Amino acid sequence: MIENACRMCGRLLDQPSDPLSPDCGGDCWGCIGEIEAVGGYNPSLRAVRAEIAAGIRKPIADLPDDGGLDDDDWDDGS
Ligand SMILES: [Zn+2]
């Protein structure tokens, strides 16, 4: 078990050479960004779409055009 790795995909976290590796609470942005984007959180959706356009991220089949959720609408459980 690698300590500093995403719990979902095993990617090493916080690697300067990997734009999808920022640590999002134990999981990488690559995983979290996709979940949030597919879940309809617009800020993540915009970021993920830009990453796909830039070739950083693999295309996601079921990405919504507009998630319908902005910052104020997101229920983060708090
Ligand atoms: Zn991951």
Quick rundown:
The chain is mainly alpha-helical. It contains 2 helices and no strands. The structure holds zinc ion.
Note down, in words, how this protein is organized.
The chain is globular. The longest helix is centred in the middle third of the chain and has 12 residues, at 42-53. The termini are far apart. The mean pLDDT is 91. Helices cover 28% and strands 0% of the residues. It has one domain (1-73). The relative contact order is 0.15. Helix 1 packs across helix 2 (42-53). With 78 residues, it is an all-alpha fold. It binds zinc ion (ZN). Zinc ion binds at residues 6, 8-9, 11, 27-28, 30-31. Zinc ion binds next to helix 1.
Question: What is the topology?
Answer:
Elements: H1 29-38, H2 42-53
The protein binds zinc ion.
Zinc ion binds next to helix 1.
Describe the structure using short key phrases.
0% strand, 28% helix, mainly alpha, 78 residues, single chain, binds zinc ion
Overall helicity: 25-40%
The main β sheet shows up as: none
Q: Unreliable stretches, pLDDT < 50, 5 or more residues?
A: none
Number of domains: 1
Encode the helix/strand succession as letters. Answer: HH
Gyration radius over CA: 13 Å
Strand content of the residues, in percent?
A: under 5%
Give the CA-based shape.
Answer: globular
